[in-house]
Amino acid sequence: MNKHFGELHVLQDINLEVAHGEVLVVIGPSGSGKSTLCRAINRLETVDSGTIRIDGVDLPAEGRALAQLRSDVGMVFQSFNLFAHKTVLQNVTLGPIKVRGLKVADANEEAMALLDRVGVANQADKLPAQLSGGQQQRVAIARALAMHPKVMLFDEPTSALDPEMITEVLDVMVQLAKEGMTMVVVTHEMGFARKAADRVVFMADGQIVEEATPEEFFTNPRSERAQDFLSKILTH
Ligand SMILES: Nc1ncnc2c1ncn2[C@@H]1O[C@H](COP(=O)(O)OP(=O)(O)OP(=O)(O)O)[C@@H](O)[C@H]1O
Ligand SMILES: [Mg+2]
Q1: 206 pocket-lining for ligand 1 (C-beta < 6 Å)
Q2: pLDDT tens column, 165-179
Q3: pTM for this structure?
Q4: All domains of the chain, ordered by start, with CATH?
Q5: Using CA positions, which residue lies closest to atom 11 of ligand 1?
Q6: 187 CB under 6 A from ligand 1?
Q7: Residue 196 belongs to what H/E stretch?
Q8: Which of 29, 37, 145, 227 is deepest in the core (most CB within 10 A)?
Q9: How many angstroms separate the CA atoms of 14 and 50, rounded?
Q10: What pLDDT digit, counting tens, does each position of 79-96 carry?
């Protein structure tokens, strides 16, 4: 696909396929188009050309069909985007009740199981602001999972967190990967990439410059752009 922001060709002939159960890490310098790519996959951003296909179905441009297919894609952003005036439990049950049509009792039961899975079941009745950043991000993951997505997109899910909270979020993501979830993860967390990723895609200036296994990419990047980028984040 291709996309412009005015003069800026922000996504240039991006051709990407993610297999069922695959974990893809997207890495690259600031402004390279990683977030735009994630947002385009979910149609939060329009594209100028190209198609997005999920599980064999073209993502419609708009309308009810889009809302339906969009729920196949769970998204977790850098900022938690939880509803501030709803409890943790309500944050997780809202989508299932409204979009999936679950009864409240069923939605609650499923939400509690998901909150338990991400380790914050004991926070269910609190408001988001009463939780740590790491706990909020785990709630955001539970909320996305509650929609039974076919693929999960993560856009720098740990970059706004204090170091001690990063691990608890990454642990949940590693677990999810092990369970076979299809995941696209924008992150610079090398530990996560090495532990969980099947493939790394390196983006620069709107293009996919390099694709490799995590091991290959981190130990022996081929392109000069990637070498330069890695030397910066490694010495950071
Ligand atoms: N809504 C917009 N209108 C105009 N330009 C935009 C818009 N959103 C992003 N851009 C520009 O597109 C380019 C890519 O932005 P994007 O947010 O996708 O980068 P990124 O790789 O996610 O960077 P970061 O690592 O800082 O999050 C940047 O130059 C940015 O300024
Ligand atoms: Mg970004």
Answers
A1: no
A2: 999 999 999 999 999
A3: 0.94
A4: 3-83+150-232 (3.40.50.300)
A5: 31
A6: no
A7: helix 190-196
A8: 37
A9: 9
A10: 878 999 999 999 999 999
